[in-house]
Amino acid sequence: MKIKVAKEDLIKLIGRTQNIVEKRNTMPILVNVLLEATGNKLKVLATNLEVSLTDEIECEVLTPGKVAANAKSFFEIIKEMPDGQIQLTKQENNWLKVAQGKSVFNIVGISPEEYPVFPSYTTKDFMEIEAKTLADMIAKTIYSVSNDETRYHLNGVYFEKITGRKDAYLMVATDGHRLSLVNRLGGDKISGQAEGVIIPRKGLQEIYKLLENVEGTFKMAIEGSQLVVCHGNTVLMVRLIEGKYPNYRQLIPQNLSEHISVRREELLSSLKRVSLLSNQKSKGVTFNLSKGKLEITSNNPELGDAKEEIEVDYTGAGLKIGFNAKYIMDVLTSINDKDIIFDLKDQLSPGVMRPTDDKDYTCVIMPMRI
Q1: Per-residue pLDDT at 23
Q2: Domains along the chain?
Q3: Residue range 285-309: average pLDDT?
Q4: pTM for the full predicted model
Q5: Which of 173, 182, 201 has its CA nearest to residue 133?
Q6: Which value, in Å, is the radius of gyration of the alpha carbons in the chain?
């Protein structure tokens, strides 16, 4: 393999692989990316066996071929080179030669035949979805995904098409202490169907990075045990989590009697300050509600204590309840609305937070004992 390629194009291509390649040494071969030159294209393949990516750019192919090399070393070298043409050459020992002007780098490579068998897809049944819609849904749910590997089915976000609502999709995540649920209309361009699937956190993070700056639509399909996401020349394939997702609707409390309306930014700022003196592990704070005001307190014998009072729209009886401040701050950070509604019942029952102007976004937070 011998090619000439523009640095600007190459850095974007290899940059997309950096969060996918395996950084741990469980399978050392996965720290590499596979480069394949054919026709007038350079194609890159990267995988950690859970998330796989293929992408391609135009280049001048002098000799077609394949080479596999360390993704991080390759990226760091390219990043430091000046703009202009870069020549890549596969050498007889499977090393990759990177040359520009008087600069020459030789990166240890492996035989392309040793690289893991790359996943593929055959389906043509793609959904077409607004990129900003799905990116927003991911941002509003991913923080509630469980880190408990013994509850593997909760290590991702559940995604499904809403029965009975045309072009509507739902995402939900829970770790047992909190739950985030959002549903959105995908727009007139949505087509195809989607059964309920569990998308792992890592896959969602890569999908979000791909979509956050995309205008318009992208294509997505579910084939067997994998999710396929396509935009332009970029293809992401994500291995779905097997298992049955819990009945999340049973986890959303109904008929909550106490209702608070509060400025989102004011509550978020107060929690950031008060939680500085909370228990650094549990992040516990106490909400003390009375008519028209909310008092937020924290106490850590090793650090000190804090108390702040903010004005709220609340006319119910006095109520004292404890929460993990981080859980509430995660919700507030994911909301763009000016005001939020916080529905409660008593100090032992979960609370429900919603943006004032978005009834299709629901967040449930379990209380802490105080």
Answers
A1: 75
A2: 2-114 (3.10.150.10), 127-248 (3.10.150.10), 252-365 (3.10.150.10)
A3: 97
A4: 0.91
A5: 182
A6: 25
